[in-house]
Amino acid sequence: MTPVQTYARVAGILFLISFVAGAFGEFYVPSTLIVSGDPTATFNNISAHEWLFRLGFAGYLLEGLCDAALSLVLYVLLRPVHRNLALLAAFFGLVSTAHFAICEMFFFSGPMLLKNPVFLQTFSREQLNALSYLFIRIYSYGAGLFMVFYGSASLVRGYLIYRSGYLPRFLGILLGVAGVGFILRNFTLVLAPTYSSGLLLLPAPRPGRDPGPGKMRRPRRGPSRGHKKPITVDAIEKPNAVPASGFHTRVNVPMAAAGMTSVTTTAATRPDPTQNSASAPSARFGR
């Protein structure tokens, strides 16, 4: 298994876990327990199904862990295409994850007020219900007001995947369209709430919070005009390495990750003047 395959499979597994955990913690649980515009009914549901409420927050924690790990894995996977853009996407992703963690803190803390004896002695039950419901509304608005960071990360990653040559282009297009949808939803929510629609998030490949750019170097052209030189295995495993001159052999690298097709890369090899020395070991991917 090549290093590209390894990182691609790890990313696929993390995406799948994040998708399932996010769907449960951010869609199923809130839609089951929260009654829009009715604080009393909402917290009666939470009191009756407290284990489900806590399980939903645990699902978010699992999703957040996967998102943080994905920032690193996708950076390493996309760094050979354009290092600075891959790093920018990782920063956007981490900011998005950290911001949504703050929003989730409000979601989890609100219902906990109802069990604090100090608050029970100071406020009436109706006042506590209203205050806790306010915390949940802050969570909801906060998650929508800063989804531009998640959208920007998706847009950059989609662009890099599309230009990589060793990852499926349809995935890059999907991420790019989803990123534009997140960004538009964020700005319409701020500037024109009447026109802010959830339909903008339909292309999103995950159900996280928000359901998680720049000019890139073009591949060097070969001898014939218009012929793009493919990214070599050496360049993927060691991005800063200069391709060796000499004989070239064609190597088929099967992309075993889900949805990937095999690509043909060109591996440059030097003729050994001594014909006895052993070839040097390959540099590790991402070094």
Structure report:
By secondary structure, the protein is mainly α. It has a domain at 3-201. It is built from nine helices and two strands; from the N terminus they run H-H-H-H-H-H-H-H-H-E-E. It has a two-stranded antiparallel ribbon. Helix 1 (3-33) packs antiparallel against helix 3 (50-78), helix 2 (39-48) packs across helix 6 (125-145) and helix 3 runs antiparallel to helix 4 (83-112). The radius of gyration is 24 Å and the shape is elongated. The protein starts with a helix and ends in an 18-residue tail after the last strand. The model is unreliable at 207-287 (pLDDT under 50).
Brief overview:
With 287 residues, this protein is mainly α.
Write the layout of secondary structure elements.
Layout: H1 3-33, H2 39-48, H3 50-78, H4 83-112, H5 117-122, H6 125-145, H7 148-164, H8 169-191, H9 233-237, E1 247-253, E2 263-269
Helix pairs in contact: 1-3, 2-6, 3-4, 4-6, 4-7, 7-8
